[in-house]
Design a protein that fits this description.
This protein is mainly alpha-helical. It is 73% helix and 0% strand. Helix 1 packs across helix 4.
């Protein structure tokens, strides 16, 4: 069982990994590169975070989870304020897109670096990341597709999903 690492050590490793993965990609970055850049012992990185794939997925999820949680909360709030009426399409689009634009503009917390990494992740897909991206995005996309279909009820589920360019798992019920 792994002991609880220092939050500063984990944050330093994740920041270093995010920066290097964004610059050089998964295959162009070694765990030694990351630990050297972070000033952390290679053995400690393995001990606390595991292998390079695990580190990569941790880098992604630490940013995606709060973004997606804020999206869902903002959509829930917009639906409450709409009092049973469909949320306006411009609001839905704003709620969906704004967190990424805000993150991209936030250089103090490494946001622009993460946006580059996410773009790279989508262009250079890795098998180890597919399930992570699906787990992080799918529940959010389901909620947004529902909101779009309330606003545009004539759209089929397939067209609504196609409009946002996301493949949903057919085994999951998406009303």
């Amino acid at each position: 069982m792994r002991k609880n690492p220092s939050p500063d050590t984990i944050r330093t490793l994740l920041d270093s990994a995010e920066e290097l993965f964004a610059k050089h990609g998964f295959n162009g970055t070694s765990l030694r590169d990351i630990t050297g850049n972070a000033g952390v012992n290679l053995a400690a990185a393995h001990y606390h975070l595991g292998d390079k794939q695990t580190l990569y997925t941790e880098v992604l999820t630490r940013r995606l989870r709060p973004i997606n949680a804020s999206r869902v909360e903002a959509l829930n709030q917009a639906e409450r304020e709409a009092r049973g009426q469909p949320v306006r399409m411009d609001q839905i689009i704003d709620i969906m897109a704004r967190p990424f634009f805000e993150l991209a503009a936030d250089n103090t917390q490494g946001g622009s670096c993460f946006v580059r990494l996410l773009g790279r992740t989508l262009v250079e897909p890795l098998p180890c990341v597919e399930d992570v991206l699906a787990a992080e995005f799918e529940p959010v996309m389901v909620r947004f597709v529902q909101a779009v279909r309330r606003h545009l009820p004539h759209l089929s589920r397939t067209h609504a999903i196609g409009g946002i360019g996301f493949r949903l798992n057919p085994r999951i019920s998406h009303s």
